[in-house]
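Q: Sequence in, structure out?
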Amino acid sequence: MLGIFSKLLDINRREVERLSKIVEKVNSFDAKAKKLKEGDFAKKTQEFKDRLGKGETLEQILPEAYAVVREASLRAAVNLSWASGRGMSFRYKLFTRSLIPLTLPRLHHPHSTR
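A: Exactly. Output:
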């Protein structure tokens, strides 16, 4: 029984290490994403589509795309929270997690209506 538990922990550790590298890449685009103006988000979406069309893979653009979507969702959440008269809440994380799976497949499949 202890052997199975050890294997699970080892698998978990490897997955955390793998994801940590991706998180570092995402965070490396953070400053660049923060500098974007409101109108730049649509341009970045088109840029990502163009890059995919030129042969880049979704995995290659994913860290930058995630950073851009995270920044856009943070701004939207801030705008919503100020408009409602409430401060920032945990809903921001839920909003971000909901937005990314909806946005990234559209980059990969430009004719998707989902």
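The chain is about 80% helix and 0% strand.
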